[in-house]
Design goal:
90 residues; mainly alpha; 4 helices
């Protein structure tokens, strides 16, 4: 099966150990990034942004920027909803 036709069912074929390992790696990466001091945090995001636009034309830069922005908005919405639910439970 080609990567283009890969569906959700193909993702679930991973073993339990692979899923746990992937989750632990992801959590470690997120923890590392979120624990950075503010200046290093901003510097890292700037560096990643500059690296991502290398050799990409302006139209594709706009598309990529909007895509990444949408990911950020989704994270903001989920965090806000979680905070509201926590306040309701108190």
């Amino acid at each position: 099966m080609s990567k283009e036709s890969m569906g959700f069912e193909d993702i679930s074929d991973k073993t339990v150990e692979e899923n746990i390992s992937s989750q632990n790696t992801y959590k470690a990466l997120v923890s590392c990034i979120t624990s950075l001091p503010p200046k290093q945090f901003v510097l890292l995001s700037t560096l990643i942004g500059v690296l991502l636009i290398d050799n990409i034309d302006p139209k594709d830069q706009l598309i990529l920027g909007k895509f990444i922005n949408n990911i950020g908005q989704t994270i903001f919405i989920a965090a806000a909803q979680e905070q509201i639910n926590i306040k309701k439970d108190k």
